[in-house]
Every structure is written in C-alpha cells, then in structure tokens.
Amino acid sequence: MKSYIRVKAYLLILIIVLPSYSQSNNSPVPRESKQLIIVLTDSTSSTKGFLYRCDKKNGTWKLISSKLPIVLGRNGLGWGRGLHQIDSSLLPVKVEGDGKSPAGVFTLSYAFGYAKVETMKNLKFPYIEVTSMLECIDDVKSKYYNQLVNNNEADTIDWQSSEKMYFADVYYEQGIVVDQNINPIEKGAGSCIFLHNWATPNETSAGCTEMAPENLKEIINWLNYSDYPILVQLTEPLYRFYQQQWELPVLENLNP
C-alpha cells in the first residue's frame, strides 16, 4: 500500500496542521494563510464565474492577477464541508451526485497530474503523479469514499463507482485537490472535488471547478504549501455578505 499511504500522508499532514491554524472569532480563513484563491459566481444556479488570486503582504490581501473565467457544476453551488460554518438558510447544502460545486472555505492539500514529478521544476506544493491505477472513490458504501486510492494496493475493492483519474483525457491532466468533506469524511456529503482543466469553456462539470489549462498550470506553480493556500468559493452576493466578517479582500463586481 505504499502509494495509497503516500496519497493519504498529505491528508494526515493537513489534519495535524489544521488545529494549529489561528482563526479569528469571525473568519474561517486561517491567519497563517498567505495565498487565497477566490471563485465567484453571480447566483446559486450559475455555472460560470471568475477566479481571482491574492497574496497577503504585511497582513493585507493584495490581488495579483486579473480575473480568470471558470465553469462549475451543472447545478451551480451548494454549501460544502470545509473550514466555514454552514448556514442552510443562505444556500442549499451539497450532497453526493447533486451536480453542485461546493461553496465555502477550503484548504488545498496537493496537486496532481499526468506529468512525472521530476519534470515539475517550479513546484512548491505536494504533487501526486496520476497513473492508470489511481481512482477517486465516490461510492458512498465504500470505506474509501472521497479518497484517492491505487486500486492494485487497496485492502479490498469495495466500491462500484469511482473517478478513474488516468482515463479522464484533458480533464485530469493536471489538477488540485479541494479538501471538501475530509475532516471527518461524511458519507454522502460530496466527493472527489478538484480544480482541473476544462475541455471547452462552454461545458459544465459534475461538481468540480474547471478552467483553461494554461491558467491552472500557472496556479499550480504559484501555490506554496508553507503559505497555507485557501480556496473561497461563493456567489458574488454571499461574498459581499461575508467580506468584512471573514476579512476577505474587496473585489470588483462580477458584472460591473
């Protein structure tokens, strides 16, 4: 189970590190975080939006890129399980198979891709090479639910449904794992959520956040594990609602 343990090790690191985060009384974004990815849409049902990147300098978030187009799940957004508190009066709660991308605040544990790690010269972030054996399990009855597993090294093949990572064409050529529903994993609360490539900008996903490959490559090379990168994914109205409370940067309107 060497490869399985290797994949899980990054999750274990996060479980150890997360309790040491210093969060303010109001914000789920850890004070130690110096990298922020923000994804905004104009409504809960929207399948298109924009991504922003910010660095924290001298305690203040600074926008470092122009907004980048993204696409989301075919049914928009629903609250995921991350660092935030869920208020179901503001947004539906995500469940397995609902076609929604997770809204909220999430850590990012590692990147993945078809490229060999030795060719990734600019990496400052944990990276998993995708092989033909790697699957992400979305079967709620499996003990490996919402985990990446090498199928030839698992104790038992107890799943009927999974994402076969190596056979997803351009989509999983590169990506970033979003820590949605991991600590602890709740059966049926959503699985296998990534930032990954799109094939075209006119599609939707099953729940992931997709973008142009060249933009995602730049993001992967920018991420620094020691800077505790965080994803904030919300509707634009919810972002405005939480902006001061969560100490988030002021951004331009989604539709100026």
Describe the largest sheet: 8 strands, mixed, barrel
Total number of distinct structural domains: 1
Main sheet strand line-up: 1-2-4-13-12-11-6-14
- Low-pLDDT regions: 1-19
SS class: alpha+beta
The portion of residues forming beta strands comes to 25-35%
How would you portray this structure in words?
The chain is of the alpha+beta class. The chain has one domain. Helix content is 13%, strand content 28%. It is built from three helices and 14 strands. It has an eight-stranded mixed beta barrel. It has a three-stranded antiparallel β-sheet with strand order 9-8-10. The longest helix has 16 residues, at 2-17.
Question: What is the strand and helix layout of this fold?
Answer:
Blueprint: H1 2-17, E1 35-41, E2 48-57, E3 60-63, E4 68-71, E5 77-79, E6 101-113, E7 127-129, E8 134-137, E9 148-150, E10 162-164, E11 174-178, E12 194-197, E13 209-211, H2 213-222, E14 230-235, H3 236-242
Parallel strand pairs: 1-14, 5-6, 6-7, 12-13
Antiparallel strand pairs: 1-2, 2-3, 2-4, 4-13, 6-11, 6-14, 8-9, 8-10, 11-12
Quick gist of this model?
The protein is of the alpha+beta class and 256 residues long.
Give a quick set of tags describing it.
about 260 residues; alpha+beta; 3-stranded antiparallel beta sheet; 3 helices; disordered N terminus
